[in-house]
Design brief:
The protein is globular and about 55 Å long. The longest helix has 18 residues. The chain is α/β, with parallel strands linked by helices. The protein is built from 14 helices and 14 strands. The strands form two sheets. It has an eight-stranded mixed β-sheet, with helices on both faces. A six-stranded mixed β-sheet has the order 9-10-14-11-12-13, sandwiched between helices. α1 packs parallel to α4. A hairpin with a 2-residue loop joins β9 and β10. 40% of the residues lie in helices and 14% in strands.
């Protein structure tokens, strides 16, 4: 079992570059598109990838973290890296980890880039893991860079303010490369644009009011904004790579992303792991009221603003089961007793995830599973037929 997040405490592009050098610099064998943002980057990545596929290109898609299987991170035309290939690349990279001081994420990034070259992609869509400036993916020189939306998250790494976080994410800007600003808050958008211009990038700002009005498979009104940002990315590509409008519409109409307002019968999964993400769920449920009663199963990591998240969650559900996600790092596990005490008497503390899922599903019209990638991934792994890769 591979963790969903790495544990490196020292950031540098050096380890990733060292790994890639040993692998023959596979990321130089195809062009790429680089996508950063606190929220929305996964959605924009899958929308861009599906539009490029609809235009006839063979597309690699690198995202993180995974829900159940690490191979979810490395997709080519919708297919994960084969098990045998992943095992082979892991064996190839493993002896290099100690000499290069590479982390788990740096290793998976190198493996993904090598896999894309081996599977002969025409182009890769690369989602930033954390931040931007010193993220392992920032070794690419893309055709287009984009920052989607800024919110408070990972403040222990990126800084305590929205401005600090925006500055880190603007670090993916490259000289003479189009840089799409998806952030709709004017001050933050201006900061991103200023930093990108300082790096020599060609800034393209998506108007705050822009929303995509075509067919869209992704659920929630917020995805209209993400689709508008994705469309701006596609328009910024060189003409030889730019999908036609029909190809863009076809790609957007079929793009899906597990764990994002992901409805499976009466189950609804969302990886929202910060207050901004929980508010997105709240707006989506307000626009499309779910069958009631709505029961929630939630587990939030201790370094997140779980109090604000639980407060918002309490306003949209009828009952809540607070639990632990088995895959969550022990050092980041929340204090379940404190969380239940904060949430109030209508919330039930159930340390065992399976029992929490069972209890919440009893007489529920809708069961919302949320709080982290760990929560959603662990739940999907334990509910028959729900794992992303089958």
């Amino acid at each position: 079992m591979f963790p969903r997040t790495g544990s490196a405490t020292t950031w540098s592009l050096g380890p990733t570059r060292a790994l890639l050098t040993e692998l023959g610099d596979p990321h130089a064998h195809y062009p790429s598109i680089h996508i950063a943002g606190t929220n929305g980057k996964g959605s924009v990545a899958v929308l861009v990838a599906e539009a490029l596929r609809a235009a006839g290109h063979r597309v690699g898609l690198y995202t993180s973290p995974h829900l159940v299987d690490v191979r979810e991170r490395m997709m080519v035309d919708g297919r994960p890296i084969p098990r045998a290939a992943f095992a082979a690349w892991t064996s190839r990279v493993a002896p290099l980890l100690e000499p290069t001081d590479a982390s788990f994420f740096e290793a998976t990034t190198a493996i993904a880039f090598a896999d894309f070259a081996a599977r002969g992609v025409d182009i890769a869509v690369v989602e930033v893991g954390l931040g931007g400036r010193l993220d392992a993916t920032n070794v690419v020189t893309p055709l287009v860079s984009v920052v989607t939306r800024i919110a408070l998250d990972h403040t222990e790494y990126l800084g305590p303010t929205l401005e600090d976080i925006a500055w880190e994410k603007a670090g993916i800007a490259k000289p003479a490369v189009p840089f799409v600003v998806g952030e709709s808050v004017p001050a933050l958008g201006a900061l991103l644009a200023t930093e990108a211009e300082r790096a020599g990038a060609q800034v393209i700002r998506v108007p705050p009011e822009a929303r995509y009005d075509g067919p869209l498979a992704l659920r929630g009104s917020h995805q209209r904004r993400n689709a508008a940002v994705a469309a701006a990315v596609l328009r910024a590509l060189p003409e030889t790579w730019r999908p036609s409008d029909p190809a863009t519409r076809a790609g957007f109409a079929r793009a899906t992303l597990p764990g994002r307002l992901d409805r499976r019968g009466r189950w609804l999964f969302d990886v929202a792991h910060n207050p901004d993400g929980i508010q997105t769920i709240r707006h989506a449920l307000g626009a499309e009221p779910p069958a009631r009663p709505v029961h929630a199963v939630a587990c939030v990591l201790s370094d997140k603003d779980w109090q604000t998240m639980l407060r918002a969650l309490s306003e949209m559900v009828d009952a809540m089961w607070l639990t632990n996600a088995p895959s969550a790092p022990a050092g980041r596990a929340w204090d379940l007793t404190a969380a239940a005490r904060f949430a109030g008497p209508w919330a039930t503390a159930e340390p065992d995830l399976v029992r929490a899922l069972s209890a919440a599903s009893d007489r529920a019209g809708t069961v919302l599973v949320c709080g982290s990638f760990h929560t959603v991934g662990d739940a999907m792994a334990r509910l028959p037929g729900f794992a992303p890769l089958g």
